[in-house]
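Chapter review: from sequence to fold.
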Amino acid sequence: MALSMAIAAPGETPRYRIQAGDTLDVQYRLTPEFNATAAVQPDGSVILPLVGRIPVSGATVEEVAGLIRPEAAKRLREPEITVVLRDYTKPSYTVAGEVGKPGSFDHRGEITLMRALAAAGWFKENSRHSQVILVRRLDRDWGEARVFNVKRSIGRQDFAEDPRIEPGDMIVVPHNTVGKFERYFRWA
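The token string follows.
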């Protein structure tokens, strides 16, 4: 799904946060017989020898080691644990509806609404340029939908309202008209 980043201090690079679908290598320095490679399950946990199920979703790699250490210490004396992110969910965004090439796209660098639409082959003839919808998940239960009038921005050559696209966002370009919808909604 989305690339999760921890909040960083100014000038510091945000740290990646573990999510479902990632793969972790857990290494014990003095007891390598307990080393394991584990996939993060859809519920956000990993299952490891020695410690069992540990919830890791939303934690950094360093925090995961800190979560495992006290559980391992129940059976090992002062365990030295290293956690390595082996594979992660690639950050992406989706463009759907009346565009030339709808689909999921890798999120690399700074992506704006206009750049995302260009990557998706721009508008089809029957698309509604004045009601482009940006859907963003706010948390586990809530999402936000905002409407952008790309037609007006292009006509005025004023791209001040060209929002940044975040990993996990969905852009929907409707066919001519859109009915009413609520801006905030429960993520089902």
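Two observations follow directly from the output. DSSP finds three helices and 13 strands in the chain. Residues 155 and 175 are 20 Å apart (CA to CA).
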